[in-house]
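In full, the data:

***
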Amino acid sequence: MKEPISIKPHHFVDIITALGGGQRVFEPHPYGHAVHVVAAGILEHPEATLRMALGADDICGPCSHNVDGVCDDTIDTSFRPAAPESKREYNLLIDRRWCERLGLEQGETLTARDLCRRIRDRAGDIADIYRENPVERSAERSVKLEKGLSMFLGE
């Protein structure tokens, strides 16, 4: 795996949350994105260097919805009607909120372990980061995220 790994904050959070939800192996996705490659690299190498990205990252690179560095996909707004339909716009909104909460900046580098520590220490109640989603979904995500952080950090 090349380093630094370019990754959006929410992509990293999603990987750690999936880990906390019991996912140990990430399979290739029909869209062709590289979450399975990036997740495996991060989980196998906790000291891997990450570079924070707000645009297309290493997961997005090979995705069929990545058109010249811009995501053309849409999201399901049926359970989150206040969210923008554009996946790019929604993800940017979430990533900006994570950056603000965690004190991250575009292009900043840190290890996966250090980012986990920062999330553990600063995340708090994540419901406002995902405010377009139903509270119960955020509560479930929070439990899995906390478990994933503990697992990743060996606590």
